[in-house]
Amino acid sequence: MAADQPTVLVVEDELAQREVLSYNLEAEGFRVLKAENGEEALLLVEEDTPDIIVLDWMMPNLSGIEVCRRLKTRPETRSIPIIMLSARSEEVDKVRGLETGADDYVVKPYSVIELMARVRTQLRRVRPSTVGLRLEYEDIVLDAETHKVSRSEQPLKLGPTEFRLLSTFMEKPGRVWSREQLLDRVWGRDIYVDTRTVDVHIGRLRKALTQHGGDDPVRTVRGAGYALG
């Protein structure tokens, strides 16, 4: 599994629908988590926070609307985009879904191709580097497609790990990332790496970012981790 592979949680109680969605998302390059009901979805989000959630409205016990409401009221999960799937095509239902906090609303039966496009649109908001976009922070420019970084228009030499670290920081400037979160995002969950390795690569990133002068933009937050700016 690629470390910076974006993760989608599919919450769908119908097995056939769940498998079709999972197959197509994996073919598009996503890492897929699957839940067959609302309770399982909430547990999975706590254990392995996804980048995007595709959530069915009509589920037994805990409905998709209630799952959406709970996730959107928690500060730690509020920013995860949710695409609501529903057989309800009335405008009043769509409005209710969006007012509960859903970021998009797709009526069943849907086109899988269209749904993949909508997932990518949401991903562009939260993980722009994974869809080949150019990121900018002050005088630093990162081009995810060409894998080039410059500062004050001077090219910088970065190793692949430092590039992924910088991508993570530049997607959410100011956000404090713990060492464990950086390990998951940059190295991947399936690989065991000591948290001190993060400190080594942060040191290399700092050196690379200041190779032509300029202030070090990476901030150490004592007891919490690191942030850009």
Automatic annotation (TrEMBL):
Residues 7-123 form the Response regulatory domain. InterPro entries: CheY-like_superfamily, OmpR/PhoB-type_DNA-bd, Sig_transdc_resp-reg_C-effctor, Sig_transdc_resp-reg_PhoB, Sig_transdc_resp-reg_receiver, WalR-like, WH-like_DNA-bd_sf. It comes from the Bacteria. Gene3D superfamilies: 3.40.50.2300, 6.10.250.690, Winged helix-like DNA-binding domain superfamily/Winged helix DNA-binding domain (1.10.10.10). Residues 132-229 bind DNA. Keywords: Activator, Cytoplasm, DNA-binding, Phosphate transport, Phosphoprotein, Transcription, Transcription regulation, Transport, Two-component regulatory system. This protein is a positive regulator for the phosphate regulon. Transcription of this operon is positively regulated by PhoB and PhoR when phosphate is limited. This is Phosphate regulon transcriptional regulatory protein PhoB. It comes from Pseudodonghicola flavimaris. The gene is phoB.
